[in-house]
Amino acid sequence: MSWWKDRRTPHAEANFVRVNPVKIVMRAIIAWCLLMPVLARAEPPMHLITENYPPYNMVEDNGEVGGLSTIMVKEMFRRAGIPFAIDLQPWARAYKTAQSDENTCVYSTTRTPAREYQFKWVGPLLQNVWALYAGPHSPAHVQSLEQIRPYIIGGYNGDAVAQYLIGQGLHVELSPSDDLNPRKLLAGHIDYWATSIYRFNYLLKHNDTTALTKVMEFNSVMLYLACNPKVPDAKIARLNAAIDAMHKDGFSERERRRYLVK
């Protein structure tokens, strides 16, 4: 006899408990179901990056990132049940970070053919109308983009408006921030300034830009959340379902009216 058999009690066979494999499997399934909500809560937050570009994205008085696009993005993630953290960066750096870093998205991003395959897209968040503005030193009687071909247009690094105009073969002088262009236009350092109509109206309410006038609107585009290609398709689908619901139940239009005055 082995050492173990020599030391068994007389009742060892009677005390032996038979294990039911079906019960083990069922208990494992129940434990996994109970654990799933915990795992979902523990998923790492998505890294969202935007720039300081009122009224779409900006730092509010309480120090938090706000603005119309940010309100839309926060509500979309809340409805989708996906954790997130928002970071402000200069646009060019924010755009490159979203291209290179997994689990990262950038907004408010114009969806163009050149950018189509660089990201996975969620939206649209909002419509954005582009316009050309003149200052006190601007040439008069301009009515088309073709007529401004000899002149200098103010834009800023990485912006879709500037990229569009450059693609049209126009002379665009790029600044590190769009905030510099109204001052350059007033001083006569550029001939025109191309920007969003909502951006212009925000600056009109907060700065002395009454000497600037709209020449024409020349394009209308949609703004999106642009995500790194490695963000799972399932997350993109959940976010798109959430933004679709926001458009249908009136949330988007209510916020647009609250923030933007055309």
In total, how many domains does the architecture comprise? 2
In CATH, what is the homologous superfamily of the largest domain?
Periplasmic binding protein-like II
**Arithmetic mean of pLDDT:** 87
Query: Which architecture of the largest domain does the CATH hierarchy give at level 2?
Result: 3-Layer(aba) Sandwich
Give the count of helical stretches.
10
CATH fold field value of the largest domain: D-Maltodextrin-Binding Protein, domain 2
CATH C-level category of the largest domain? Alpha Beta
Describe the structure in your own words.
By secondary structure, the chain is α/β, with parallel strands linked by helices. Helix content is 39%, strand content 25%. It is built from 10 helices and 10 strands. The strands form 2 sheets. The chain has an 8-stranded mixed β-sheet with strand order 4-1-5-10-6-9-7-8, with helices on both faces. A two-stranded antiparallel ribbon has the order 2-3. The longest helix has 21 residues, at 21-41.
Defining traits:
262 residues; alpha/beta; D-Maltodextrin-Binding Protein, domain 2; two-stranded antiparallel sheet; 39% helix; elongated; disordered N terminus
Please summarize what this structure is.
This protein is an alpha/beta fold.
Per-chain topology:
Elements: H1 3-6, H2 12-15, H3 21-41, E1 46-50, E2 58-59, E3 65-66, H4 68-80, E4 84-88, H5 91-100, E5 104-110, E6 120-134, E7 152-156, H6 160-167, E8 171-175, H7 180-187, E9 192-196, H8 197-206, E10 213-227, H9 233-248, H10 251-259
